[in-house]
Design brief:
single chain; 109 residues; mainly alpha; Arc Repressor Mutant, subunit A; 4 helices; rod-shaped
């Protein structure tokens, strides 16, 4: 569960616009708005990535896709482990049944 946000999204977006449009340092804009410079710097970097200005950073959509793929990968790995365990269980039971059958009826030729 994520923790509550300290600042509303509108304030952060306003800070991003001010930092980009006014060409003032991010720390100064953050101080004027009463927020952490690091938080505003991260928001500015993410806005730049979303706008295609930072190809070295993943956009918000790409981050969500990566998150969803990791979740799906985890579920598939878990299902694979369950299937491996079930396969081993049924293989050992099948072998025991076969051996019991051979003892009872002998080898049929």
């Amino acid at each position: 569960m994520s923790r509550p946000k300290k600042f509303p999204d509108e304030l952060v977006q306003r800070g991003v616009r001010l930092a980009v449009e006014s060409q003032r340092p991010v720390a100064q804009v953050a101080r004027d708005l009463g927020m952490s410079p690091e938080m505003l710097r991260r928001a500015v970097r993410q806005a730049e990535a979303d706008g295609g200005l930072r190809p070295d950073l993943p956009s918000t959509a790409e981050r969500e896709e990566i998150k969803q793929l990791r979740r799906e990968n985890f579920e598939l790995r878990r299902a694979n482990e369950i299937l491996k365990t079930a396969s081993a269980f049924f293989a050992s039971n099948c072998q025991m049944l076969w051996m019991g059958c051979m003892r009872t009826f002998g080898s049929v030729r």
